[in-house]
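Bench notes, afternoon.
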Amino acid sequence: MPYLFVIDGIKNEYRILELKEILNIGRDAVNDLVLDSPDVSRLHGSILREEDGAFVLVDQNSTNGIEVNGCRATQHRLQHGDTFSISTFSFTYLNTKPRLPGVEVETAAYLTPEDTDATVFLDREAFWKKLPQTEKTEPENPPQGGKLLRMVRQNNNISIREASSRTRISLTNLKAIEAEDFANLPIDTFLRPYLVTYAEFLGLDGSKVAREYLQKRDQQIANGKLSPRKNVSTGSVISMERGSFLSRLRVTLVFFLAFVAGFLLFSFQLHL
């Protein structure tokens, strides 16, 4: 059976849970795992075992949501090493029981006396333990730019084609945005609103995502990894240039026809 390593970030305490069939998490005392925080919904989320034995994390329409691997998600199929957070509580899903240095770890979950085999009964206080003191390490940088957008989209089970259809951003541009293929992206006049629209579609801060994305590109230019020339848009800019050319052609044709008509009318009057 897999394990869930839970840390209370306020009290600096932890507990280890052995997952069985279903684990309900929330503020209400009827839940299997009770999290004492006003930021936690009464029933915040659940971990459910599927027929193939895999466990899935589900957000039960909570107010403040669940972040999985740094990105908000409504449903996520858990894999070894996945991390998620609810309020100030952090969770790590593990296929093997974790071991902490200097601390004897015991499983914090056991079946009810009724032995329903479907619910894990968790003692409300007895299994919380103080985390051992360890040297502080610098936190890893959270994902940004195209990696962040792709991760959030995938965590919400949205295909890139669906995202393109719903945002009305071309599939070519969306792929280039997620891949950070800066050389083939539109100029900033078009790229910035694309980034804002796509980020807000995924539930992110559009202005912040666009600013960080363009800063990352500018940093590559400063480091000599990207040419400072204006980016070429194979979609929007070319279509605009074609449209502009056709517009000028139409105006020229109208003037030419007007000139010919005037000349013919003048010639006709001279012969009268």
